[in-house]
Write a structure and sequence with these properties.
Layout (H helix, E strand, L loop, with lengths): L9 E4 L3 H13 L4 E4 L2 H10 L4 E5 L1 E2 L2 E2 L4 H5 L6 E6 L4 H9 L4 E4 L4 H13 L10 E3 L2 E4 L4 E4 L2 E2 L4 H12 L5 E2 H9 L9 H15 L4 E6 L3 E6 L1
Parallel strand pairs: 1-2, 1-3, 3-6, 6-7
Antiparallel strand pairs: 4-5, 8-9, 9-10, 10-11, 12-14, 13-14
Helix pairs in contact: 6-8
Bound molecules: calcium ion (CA).
Length: about 230
């Protein structure tokens, strides 16, 4: 079962415009999908809204030390690898960075070839040993540990009942899930629900998955139940 560590999106956090441009061009040439932000605040927002494989992190940022991002990035369900890019070549700084949870360290100025080699190495190895493995169906990832859903790199928020339904279907993707099972899980055996309550939740979820371009289809198996499969 593939894990979310297969995502390959890179976040560059760097406030020097010329260097950032150069790195972004190099990543583009190597066909690494990447985003660039130039402040700690924007980096925080990026790591909590998108799923990154790797963060290239400058330490001296206009609004603080890049090291402050590490705990937030590393507490994500499938944490990114982190490589510090910094002018600091002090041994104490290096140890501080690695102790904080960074995976690697590159001292400026560095050759772009060296950076790309580190990027390739970081994206080959698992982001974190023992990181939770997400269930993938089409372009949709479901993390059983946190019940978070991702489409591509974007988090998908669902109302409680649609989330519960999706979880039941994702766990049995490619197999038909009986409607009686879904109803008892969603509403309880003695639950007070109308005859078409399940259909309503199904059609809302189906529309939301389509809108999100999740790469899955939610099939109605007439008289039996529902099935989620990649499309
Ligand atoms: Ca800087």
């Amino acid at each position: 079962m593939p894990g979310v560590s297969e995502g390959s999106r890179i976040l560059l956090v760097e406030d020097e415009p010329a260097l950032a441009r150069e790195i972004m061009r190099a990543l583009e040439r190597e066909r690494w999908p990447a985003d660039h932000v130039s402040s700690l605040a924007d980096a925080f927002e990026a790591v909590i809204t998108l799923r990154y494989r790797l963060v290239l992190l400058d330490r001296r940022l206009p609004d603080g030390d890049g090291i402050g991002l590490v705990p937030a990035a590393k507490s994500r369900p499938s944490p990114p690898s982190i490589i510090f890019l910094t002018a600091r070549d002090d041994i104490a700084d290096r140890i501080e960075g690695l102790d904080a949870g960074a995976d690697d360290y590159l001292v400026k100025p560095f050759a772009l070839e060296e950076l790309l080699a580190r990027v390739r190495a970081a994206c080959r190895r698992p982001a974190t040993e023992g990181a939770p493995t997400a269930i993938q169906v089409g372009g949709l990832f479901f993390d059983p540990a946190t019940r978070e859903i991702w489409v591509d790199a974007r988090a998908l928020a669902l109302p409680r009942r649609e989330l519960a339904l999706l979880e039941l279907l994702v766990r049995r993707a490619g197999r038909v899930v009986q409607r009686s099972h879904l109803e008892s899980e969603l509403y309880g055996f003695d639950g007070d629900f109308t005859a078409n309550a399940l259909e309503t939740v199904v059609s809302r979820l189906r529309r939301r998955l389509e809108d999100a371009a999740a790469g899955v289809e939610l099939l109605t198996i007439r008289g039996v139940g529902y099935m989620l499969q990649p499309c």
